[in-house]
Amino acid sequence: MKKHIVVIAGDGIGQEVTTVGKQVLDRIAERFGHEFTYDEALIGHAAIEATGNPLPEETITKSKQSDAILFGAVGHPKYDNDPSAKVRPEQGLLGIRKALGLYANLRPIKLFDELLQASSIKPEFLQGADILFFRELTGDVYFGEKGRRDDGNTAYDLMIYSRYEVERIAVKAFDAAMTRRKKLCSVDKANVLESSRLWREVVQDVAKRYPEVEVEHQFIDTAAMLLIKDPRRFDVVVTGNLFGDILTDEASQIAGSMGMLASASIGDTTGLYEPIHGSAHDITGKGVANPLASVLSVALMLEISFGMKAEAEAVVDAIDQVLKAGFRTRDIANANTPADLILGTEAMGKQVLSKL
Ligand SMILES: NC(=O)c1ccc[n+]([C@@H]2O[C@H](COP(=O)([O-])OP(=O)(O)OC[C@H]3O[C@@H](n4cnc5c(N)ncnc54)[C@H](O)[C@@H]3O)[C@@H](O)[C@H]2O)c1
Ligand SMILES: CC(C)[C@H](C(=O)O)[C@@H](O)C(=O)O
Ligand SMILES: [Mg+2]
Predict the structure, then answer these.
(1) With pLDDT > 90 as the criterion, what percentage of the chain qualifies?
(2) Closest ligand to residue 75's CA
(3) Catalytic status, residue 249
(4) Active-site residue, 189 included
(5) Are 355 and 316 in contact (CB under 8 A)?
(6) What is the fold, at CATH topology level, of the domain defined by 120-255?
(7) Residues 145-150: what's their mean pLDDT?
(8) For residue 112, what is the DSSP state?
(9) Domain 1-112+258-356, classified CATH 3.40.718.10, yes or no
(10) Which residues line ligand 2 (CB under 6 A)?
(11) Is-contact 290 280, C-beta < 8 A?
């Protein structure tokens, strides 16, 4: 198959991990006889430096013409420490999600057996945990009206959802539940927020079309607790943009590290595949970032955008083999990991390629 992929590496460790992701794509093309062509595009701080704009028009044009996008990360400490900055790297990511209509962000939480010990949660509560989050990605407080009032001492971000936005993400989540363990948990704050009461109402309506799916509703605070207490109780979780952002960083500790969580941002057109982690200023340039979230994002791209199930399985299997051989990046190593098995970004990438 011929596929055209736009690589948007972005900032910080985005550059380092995306290099490995692309190498894996090349290896898959070679092994399975596909032809992948690539283009690169700018976003975030890198784009601001080059053009003054975190999301140049050219990036949107190239992305729209692609079969899929491999995304790294955006962010720079310069903006994190300057709340008054008007132009910010994160606007690039939010902008591309909106421009491409990527309203569903799938975040699988899958614990590789070998990483049971890497998690901060006790192994006996974890084994077999397998959750698929559907995070709504183009609505909520992220995109509601925002601003400052009066003398600048009052600020607001409007939390807003429309029926169609909730319905389309709910349908995707229920469809996925039907292919899994047929359990769906919808997370909101309907005891307080009106937008959450609409969310719950719509999810209840959609549920009527899926009588086989066992549905529960949890408040965000309780869901955050249950995720740590008993992660195995969850199958598919559907939630809004902000709650989904926070819950999935929390859930990364089930999988062992932020460096293990991939995601697929999809809608009605092309798909964008992104690790859930950011540009990680604290480790940028040190060559120690875990590239497996990017490699797992490639696996999601192969399966979801290209329908290449065997190829996706080959990638996940290669990671499994590397972990079984004992190799770890620093974030998933522990006190018992022999020093010679703790690898940097590039060396971990080489191990994965060797198993492919
Ligand atoms: N999707 C994105 O592009 C995205 C996501 C989150 C944060 N950000 C941005 O990234 C910048 C840094 O944010 P942050 O530090 O809060 O979050 P972060 O996700 O960048 O890092 C959080 C922690 O996880 C570690 N970590 C993250 N990815 C890792 C990997 N692959 N391997 C090993 N360790 C890893 C980091 O070293 C850090 O200690 C900010 O500017 C933020 O806005 C971007
Ligand atoms: C960088 C930021 C805009 C982004 C988000 O909040 O969606 C990030 O945290 C993520 O999870 O992809
Ligand atoms: Mg996040």
Answers:
(1) 93
(2) 1
(3) yes
(4) yes
(5) no
(6) Isopropylmalate Dehydrogenase (3.40.718)
(7) 92
(8) -
(9) yes
(10) 90, 93-94, 245, 276, 278
(11) no
